Amino acid sequence: MSGDKNGRAAASSGKAAPAGSAAQNVDLPFSFSGFGAGRTVALIVLFILGAVVAVGGALVQGGWFPGGLLLALVGAIGLFHGGARIARGRAGAIAPAAGWVLAVILLTASRPEGDFLFGAGVGSYLFLLGGMAVAVMCATFWLPGQPPVPTARLGK
């Protein structure tokens, strides 16, 4: 086993580093520190709300074509953006978007009887593509707020 001057194991050896080494202090680009029971329940509720908004939007967009399509997309925008604000992170937009996409996929599958909810019109395609685009925008454009400013001056 090879090591450096401080007794740490070399990365190419394939063996675990000894306790107290720098290999245990890995900075991840994400954090699991805020995932408690309440946050998990909130994300599950947002997932279910995403499915409900998808079913409602699918019914409304076909019934009143121009206005219903806009109403369905505004409902999706409100849920995805509101979820991101409530959860204070991207997970709040991703959870309802996942529920929305799952419900839409289940609604587009044709049944053996030949019934399906979405027609082959422009409105249904705009609803499907527009909802997915809105979900991606709300999940990627999330900008967290500035951290609180300490009242004391540091460094002096």
UniProtKB/TrEMBL annotation:
InterPro entries: DUF6113. Keywords: Membrane, Transmembrane, Transmembrane helix. The keyword Transmembrane applies. The chain crosses the membrane at residues 40-59, 65-84, 91-110, 116-143. Residues 1-21 are annotated as: Disordered. Residues 8-21 have a biased composition (Low complexity). The keyword Membrane applies. This is DUF6113 family protein.
